[in-house]
Amino acid sequence: MDKHSLLHNVLSNATWMGKDHFPSREEFADEAEKWLNFASQHGRWPQYRPRLVGGTCASRDETLKELAVGFFLEEIAQTPICEWEPKGADGTPGEYLCKSGETLIFCEVKSPGWEWSFIREQGKHTPRLKQPKHIHAEARTVGNTDDLWYCVEKAYPAMPNDKATLLVIADDLWFPLRLDDLTIDRVLHYPPDALPYSEPPRSGCFTSTAFDRLGAIAFFDEHLSVETGAFEYQFKVFPNPFCLSTVRLPEIFISRWRGICSFCTESEPAKFKQ
After folding, report:
1. pLDDT at residue 181 above 90?
2. Residue 235's beta-bridge partner residues?
3. Strands 271-273, 260-264: parallel, antiparallel or unpaired by DSSP?
4. CB of 166 within 8 A of CB of 218?
């Protein structure tokens, strides 16, 4: 029996097949199959398969990131998903309605891709989008500040004011975020004069009540560990000190994920790196 049956179904019908090296390694194929099974077990395969089969490599990666976050929340973080595509404040659906203890959490996932910065710099018709993400010896000046701001501003209108809210950013940027990246601190906590790469200059989104319906932002990463050879997930939560009391995440969730938590799929329990 094919251990990658759902992934094989996608690959056999994908319009983007041959345009990149996906899935590139068996270890990644193994993990992607888990995410697809996760969707299938929740009865969501009919909704996700068209998004994975059609479209572009970028839309495929965004969809997989979304499923990876859901898989992580339910299977690893033990935060069960009660509802998929819950309606947000402006009628726009979020990704998940999760439950931590007795608290419902409205969860929105944003996956900024490497294409974003090239579109901003060179326009949406730039030929660079037809090339691979990484080109040998390509060098460029990069800053992820605007990408993170875009995620916050794009997600915020959907945030309700009557339940806990969480924005998860799972990036695929040209120069990827690290969960201890100073860029994250700048976007969340710094005053305007400390954001020289932001256009226009602005205060960090967690320095006032400007985003008070957003309870927290979490940064998510998944990759093949060079050290162990195992697939590793990382997750870190930044609570908003100026959020409404009605949207604040439960303390048990915040305290568990406030530090960088790394989880290798071949190890138990989760390893915490504070």
Report:
1. no
2. 220, 261
3. antiparallel
4. yes
pLDDT score at 268: 42
Domain ranges of the chain: 80-273
Q: What angle do CA 107, 33, 222 make, to 5 degrees?
A: 55
Handedness of CA 142, 145, 151, 153 (dihedral sign): negative
Tokens of 13: 């019908």
> In 10 A of CB 81, how many CB atoms?
20
Are the C-beta atoms of residues 106 and 95 closer than 8 Å to each other?
no
pLDDT of 272 higher than 50:
no
Q: Write out the two tokens for 260.
A: 């960088």
Give SS3 for 72.
helix
What distances in angstroms separate CA 192 from CA 16, 186, 201, 221, one per listed residue?
42, 9, 5, 28
pLDDT digits (tens, 9 = 90+) for 62-117: 999 999 999 999 999 999 999 999 999 988 899 999 999 999 999 999 987 666 67
Taking the C-alpha atoms of residue 43 and residue 39, their distance in angstroms, rounded to an integer, is 6
Q: Tell me the β-bridge partners of 223.
A: 232
Name which of 11-25, 30-44, 132-146 the model is least confident about: 132-146
Q: What is the mean pLDDT of residues 239-267?
A: 87
User: Do the beta carbons of residue 234 and residue 151 sit within 8 Å?
Assistant: no
CA angle, 7 then 10 then 11, to 5°: 85
CA distances from 220 to 51, 71, 114, 171 (A): 21, 12, 16, 8
